[in-house]
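As a representative case, the lines below give one protein's residues and fold tokens.
***
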Amino acid sequence: MAPFEPDERLVADSYPVTELPLCQLRLMDDARFPWLVLIPRHSGIREIFELSEADQQQLWREAARVGQALKRSLKGDKLNVASLGNQVAQLHVHVIVRRRDDAAWPYPVWGHGTAVPYDLDSLAAMRDRLLAQIEGLDLE
């Protein structure tokens, strides 16, 4: 089996945050939205049903718990969780905290306006905040 590598487009559009039990956790480079991507560390997987049942459960556990912690921390109004894969076929799950006053509300974030890249200070602050929220979670 080939070693896991995240799709080059995911790498180009996001920053690594940490490794969870199943997924690589990345932060999308758009400071308008608290937007995470979870990528299961399995090569060649395109669809959720291609994961074992245990890994399917683990994927949703990680997405739900990370999303819940981030939504609570950032006082979000809604949590969006999606796995589309139309442009990047590698299985990945978007976890996005939404607020009624965000730039795209109530519409999807995809294709809305122009991304606002993180500067180094805000990227470091968001990464630290994410790691602090994830630290105490039961992800196994």
Summary: The mean pLDDT is 95. Helices lie at 8-13, 53-74, 120-135.
